[in-house]
Amino acid sequence: MRFYRTSGALAAAAALLASAACVSEEGAAEQSDDTLVGSGTGADCTIEETVPIGAVLSLTEAAAFAGEYQREGIEMAFEEINAAGGVEYEVTYEDDKTSLEDSVAAFEKVIDRDEVSAIIGPTLSNMAFTTYTDSQSAGVPTVGISTTAEGIPEIGDYIFRASLPEEVALAASIPAAKETLGIENVAVLYDSADEFTDSAFNTMTDVLADEGVEVVVEESFETGDTDFSAQLSKVQQNEVDALILSALPGETVPLVKQARDLGIESPIVGGNAFNSPVLVGALEDASEGLIVGGAWSAAADTTGNADFIADYTEQYDRAPDQFAAQAYTAAYLIDEAVRADCDANREAIKDNLGQILEFDSILGPISLAEDGEVTQEPFVQIIRSGEFTLLEG
Amino acid sequence: MLAGYDTLITTIALGAILAYSFHVVLMAGQLSLGQAGFAALGAYVSTLIVPTEPLFGSLSPVLVGIPVGAAVGALAAFGLGLPVLRLRGVFLAIATIAFGEMVRVVITNAEWTNGALGIRVEKWVTVDLAWAVVAVLAYLFWRLGPSRTGRAFAAVREDELAAGSMGVNVVRTRMTSFVASGAIAGVYGVLFAYFFGRIIPAAFDFGLMLDGLVTAVVGGYLVYFGPILGSGFLTAVPEIQESLGLEAGWIHPLVTGLLLLAVIVFLPGGLSSLVTRARRRPRPPEPDLDALAALPPPPETGTALVRLRDLGKDYGAVRAVHGVDLEIASGDILGVIGPNGAGKTTLINMISGLEPPTTGGGDVLGVALGPAGGAHRFAQAGLSRTFQHSKLFDRLSALDNVLVGAHPVTRPTFLRRLLWLPSARRDERRAHALAWAQLRRVGLDDRAGLRPGALSYGDQRRLEIARALAAHPALLILDEPAAGMNHVEAADLAELIRSLADDGITVLLIEHNVRMVLETCTRLVVMNFGEVIAAGEPREVAADPKVVDAYLGTGETGENEYV
Amino acid sequence: MVQQLANGVFAGSIYALFAIGFTLVFGILRHLNLAHAAIFTAGAFAGIELAVRFDLPVWAMFPAVAAIGAVLGVVLERTAFRPLSGRDDEHFAGLISSIAFGGVLIAVLHARYGTEPKSFPQEYFPNRLYEIAGVRVTLTQIVTLALALALMLGLAWLVSSSPMGRAMRAVAENPGAARVLGVNVGLVTAGTYALSSGLGAVAGALLALNLGQAGRGLGASIELIGFAVIILGGLGSLWGAMAAGLVLGLAEALTVHWLDSTWKGMVAFAVLFAVLVLRPRGLFGHVKVREV
């Protein structure tokens, strides 16, 4: 008797397992909330309800060097916007602890529990590749602020970025360096274990080929390495005009220092991750002559840039970097999209983000296309006497 | 109800699955830490095979990936196990870590894996599917624990030498746990890939290994639901801490570290020991005489069970045993005496297959002595033994110790237990009947639920004899069973040994208590300096002047005892 | 080529310095101390803080860091290893408790120093470049190598010739017998951890001085190589650890030189794996564990 009962239980369990194996095809929940629609347009737009925004950033662990600046940039922008009146935003900050699991969980929280109108973040492209598919299928407009890897906007029509893609930055910095310094052959060093730096390396190779610059040495290392002397010695054996570097800040500092210590004096051209005053501080003298292409420059004469730097420095007691500037800009872009139709529902924000044309920001005139890609002029800078200065081509 | 918490709940399931892949090796006492490598291989290979469309319209394509991941993980573990399973402890741990790192570097640099950029796939894994896998694993381990295989795992964990001597095939058991770990890790890799929709080599690093190990240990690896408890606990801690408003980045690792330290120091069995602390005392079943009666009868009196020819063992330049010719016939109670260092223990280690002889040869119960090794083959042929320094399974109850002893006379029950087959129940009942019979025989049936550490010294020696008897041996080897016993206990033991002989069990007894040997044995062998110096009828041998000289004269030179 | 050999020797001396503390604890106490990497990192941060805040010159900074490391080592022994002694699963549990202790220590560093790497003051240590027979070496590299050799020789002397070393060897041989002979086993155990952690902390500060900065991941970056070094050298063998550190450093540099730097991360583990499979006692396994 007992046997039959247990086999019945087994059958029930099997049925349960079978149902667990099914994939449910839920569409994006179409929801629209009239209380998020206001009156007037543009600067006059007034919405009664507070507009919820989610910011998922790496506030701790490996990528906190960027996440903290981003949080401050977003915070300062929304404080200014809320002070200007009309529309009130409330930002929920979620820390993804620089971990994929936490990033996915944080996206789920802001989408389903906080029911935000739009999301800013995450800090790393690595996480964006998996979290953006969630915000896409949930139909939440999402603006990336440091997700520079190839293929991000292609994830879907709800995905935007206010972060200059690496290939654009490099496509500007490498020719500029070539032109001003007369570079013909280079050594390329890159971090092969990191998704961002590996992607940037691919871009560099393409741009160098387009520009007709010969790559004499190509060496890699891994995130977390501390000794680069073996690779640098190979660079040194070959007389190169410049060193092109794709590395995260953690490895950039010891690598550049070791290169200078070993007597490699050639200029060093770096990717987006170079664009940080902290890096310059940590590198001290070794930073001299570093060339960086980026989305923002402290030296640029763009609308509001001087005020931004002054206010930020006063409020947070340190100079802003590119991460802060892009995050700050993204907040203004979302506000612009909300005010366009005076509608803070997800659909409306998505539609209007794709219509932003030549918005005057601290990054210069910036446009977002319907496919989510950003268009802006990159700034090529060179570090002289510890200061970022624009490299005039 | 739980909307908005899907990721959290699935993360618990994934953490538990990863922890199960550590659980299964820890159960068998193997510190194997290559799971990150198995998971990576499972995940990457599955992306080549899993279809991009749902199966039959609605079934998750991961159903294809799960067996693929399991197979890849198991194969990789088998291939790795062949060279590295010779290693033990820290060496095994580091060799497997090295394997994991090598896999990561290869995947980072390979073309088909797309290097550090990783591979994007559809998110086919739902909460239900992840938990269904956890349920299956929990079910497997629930049924494994009290099965013959589960007991073999536990025996290997507690003492490999004793487990082998009880008929457990140690090499195969270790490999089984290793391959199972690879399979589970492979499944974890597939579920991870298809839950997050993306895999990069860095996801399978040293940190993943630490997470899995810590989860398995925090939950407790002696109980089947330990990984679920561990994963639930470690996932809940940061959530609770955040809801308390403690958000600084360093608080989470600090709290987790302190809790882990507290668990390992104060709860050696992990969190699950909180749940299982109130253990039921095992109740003796009615004596089942049929089970005992159905066992094969002992070999006919006078049959030669052991034949040794010119047997010798050298350790480098030291000749521990040499030139031993010895025959043991069924029905004998053979005593072996000799001063310390005479080679007695080396001799029986060779007879029981723990050490291969360096010269000569022989056969024991039809199994030839030789380098092919494996104490379990001798045990399965009907040889059972105790050890000079007791080798009980410390974290098993007295009853479970004796159940392991019954290994050679029982059939595997794990697979049939999975299906709840009545025959498995019958076999388990029979194993218990055999075990209880031996516990009763040595007078420990009222202490069956205690661990060996809670027993008196004399009781521990008796428990070891009960464990050896549960194998229903034709030949029983007792290595100094009376050492440390008082007179009354020694007399009881002599009585027990005689009663065993009455049941037809042949006994080989090493003992320093000469009076006991003379009273119980039918034949006596005296060894000195690795050689047999006298053999024959006990009283005659004891009177031999050479023997008296060995014991009273040159014998006590304090050489080493080769265990 | 010669330059690459020099690079390998310098990298290897850091590996060796990390590993000797690691292997000392294993040789004497049979504990695999996974908190060693955290103590290494703590040493780096401590060195930086001493230099920045108290303006301590280099010659005074290292002894101070060693003292801090030693104190941490004693705390580690008290909290993570001593409570477990005598348990059935002492060695395995010690592995886990040392992971926990390491995690706590890193969290404390995080709380104290924040998320960003910390740097030594500019010009704290003059970094000159020398060219010796066509090989470029920096002053820090020379100091690193010299200090590593000096510390290793000192440790070898200490273990072989001092009363403390004799007591350590007795404990390594047989703790029970050592106790009977009047050795204070508790004190020797604590002393071993103090010594091991002091060395680990100095190694951390030295690497930080080389890099100019230290982050919380400093120890983790070298920990796995450390495993390879101690196994390769034969667990518990001091000279083996030194030799293996240099061997791995050279192997990595030569891989970059002859092959491709993408395989640099693989070398140490491939060598380790091969050695474990072919010769489980390590390359220098004839140096018996107990001789430390």
Provide a descriptive summary of the structure in words.
The complex is a heterotrimer of chains A (393), B (563) and C (292). About 1% of the residues of chain A have low confidence. Chain A is α/β, with parallel strands linked by helices and 393 residues long. Chain A folds into 2 domains: 206 residues, Rossmann fold (3-Layer(aba) Sandwich), CATH 3.40.50; 128 residues, 3-Layer(aba) Sandwich (Rossmann fold), CATH 3.40.50. Chain A has 12 helices and 15 strands. Chain A is globular, with a radius of gyration of 24 Å. In chain A, α8 links the parallel β8 and β9. Chain B is an alpha/beta fold. Chain B folds into 2 domains: 200 residues, no CATH class; 249 residues, P-loop containing nucleotide triphosphate hydrolases (Rossmann fold, 3-Layer(aba) Sandwich), CATH 3.40.50. Helix content of chain B is 53%, strand content 12%. In chain B, the strands form 3 sheets. In chain B, strands 8-9-10-5-11-12 form a 6-stranded mixed β-sheet, with helices on both faces. A 4-stranded antiparallel β-sheet of chain B has the order 4-3-6-7. Chain B has a two-stranded antiparallel ribbon with strand order 1-2. Chain B starts with 5 loop residues before the first helix and ends in an 11-residue tail after the last helix. Chain C has 292 residues and is mainly alpha-helical. In chain C, α1 crosses α9, α2 runs parallel beside α4 and α3 crosses α4. Chain C is globular. The C terminus of chain C is likely disordered. The chains are: A alpha/beta (393), B alpha/beta (563), C mainly alpha (292). Chains in contact: A-B, A-C, B-C. At the A-B interface, α1, α3, α4 and α6 of A face α1 and α5 of B.
